[in-house]
Amino acid sequence: MSRLAETFARLNAAGEKALACYVMGGDPTPDATAQVIAAVAQGGADVIEVGIPFSDPVADGPVIQAAANRALAAGATPRALLDQVAGARAAGVSAPIALMTYYNIPYAFGVRDFVQAAASAGADATIIADLPPDEGQPWAEASQAAGLDTIFLLAPTSTDHAIHLAARLSTGFIYCVSVLGVTGARDALPTDLSQAVARVKAAASVPVLVGFGISKPEQVRDICRLADGVVVGSALVKLVSAEAPLSDNLASARAFVSSLKQATKTAPSR
Questions:
Q1: For residue 270, is it within any domain?
Q2: Which stretch of DSSP H or E encloses residue 36?
Q3: Sign of CA dihedral 30, 22, 148, 135
Q4: How far is residue 162's CA from residue 256's CA, in Å, rounded to a whole number?
Q5: What is the DSSP letter of 176?
Q6: For residue 50, what are the domain limits?
Q7: Is the pTM of this model over 0.90?
Q8: Is 255 inside any structural domain?
Q9: Number of structural domains, the chain?
Q10: Which of 22, 201, 208, 248 shows a CA-CA span of 20 to 30 A to 133?
Q11: Which of 71, 72, 79, 73 is nearest to 36 (CA)?
C-alpha cells in the first residue's frame, strides 16, 4: 500500500478529512525547501505538495507565480529540489509528498529519468497541472512503473468523458479544482461546488480533494462536508515567503497549517 493509500485509510478510520498543503520548491531559497516541508508536516498536513517552479505557470495566480519566479531567480532546479525532498525524508518527514509542476519540466528532464529520480528522492506522487487526462495514459504508466501515484486535475467544466478518464487513471487522489481560473485565495467558494464535487465522486474510486481559492478554516470545514479533503496553496506560500526571518515564517506556517488541520476534524460528513 502506498503512503497516500495508507494516509487516507488512517484518516477514514479516524473520521477525519485530508489536508494537503502546497509549498513552492525553492522559495524563499532553494536550500530552505526541506525546512519548509518539515514545518508544514509538523503543522499537521496529511499530504504535502511540492511545486517545481516553471517559467510559464498558466494555472497559477500571482502569489504562486511570484514564488516560482523567485525560486528560479535564486537558482532552483528540479534536481536540486529533489535533493531537498530527500533531505526532508532524511530529517524524518513521513507524510506523503506529491510533486506538482508542468509537463515541460519532466519532458526536458526525460520522463522516465524524472519519475525514477522522484521516487528515489522519496516522492510518492506527481501532479502535472497542464496534462489533461485524455493525454495522460503514457505519463500514468511511466509513473506506475516507478512506484509513483498519479493525480489528475478536473475543473468545474470537465466533461463526463474527462471525469471518467481521470477516475480511471488517478491512483492517489483526484484534484478537483473549485473555480474557473487560476490559483489564489478567495473570500467565498462557488455556490455550485457541491454539484461539481458530486459528479467527480460518483465516478471516482480514489479520494477527491478540492483546491484553488481555499485559505480559511471555515472554508476547509465547508469543503470537508462535500469532499475527502482540501488543498491549500497560495495562502501558505504567502506566509512562507513573507519578508521576515525564515524561522518566523516557518512558525507562522506551522500555526496556520495546524488551524486548517483542526477544521478537517470538526466537519461532519454528508
A1: no
A2: helix 33-43
A3: negative
A4: 34
A5: E
A6: 3-264
A7: yes
A8: yes
A9: 1
A10: 22
A11: 71
The CATH number covering residue 59 comes to 3.20.20.70
Residue 269 covered by a domain: no
In a domain, 79, yes or no: yes
Instruction: Return left, alpha or beta for 44; rule: phi > 0 is left, psi -120 to 50 is alpha, else beta.
Output: left
* CB-based contact 21:64 (threshold 8 Å): no
pLDDT, tens digit only, all 270 positions of the chain: 899 999 999 999 999 999 999 999 999 999 999 999 999 999 999 999 999 999 988 878 889 999 999 999 999 999 999 999 999 999 999 999 999 999 999 999 999 999 999 999 999 999 999 999 999 999 999 999 999 999 999 988 899 999 999 999 999 999 999 764 444 444 556 567 888 899 999 999 999 999 988 989 999 999 999 999 999 999 999 999 999 999 999 999 999 999 999 999 965 544
- Cα dist. 107→103, 112, 170, 188 in Å? 6, 9, 20, 36
Amino acid symbol at 216: K
- Could you write out the DSSP letters of every residue in 113-146? HHHHHHHHHT--EEEETT--GGG-HHHHHHHHHH
* Residue 29 near residue 241, CB atoms below 8 Å: no
Amino acid at 212: F
* Grid cell for residue 151: 493525480
> Could you check whether the bond before residue 28 is cis, i.e. omega within 30 degrees of 0?
yes
The catalytic residues are: 49, 60
Residue closest to 235 by CA, chosen among 76, 1, 43, 54: 43
Q: In sequence order, what E strands does the chain have?
A: 18-24, 47-51, 97-101, 125-128, 149-151, 153-154, 174-177, 208-211, 229-232
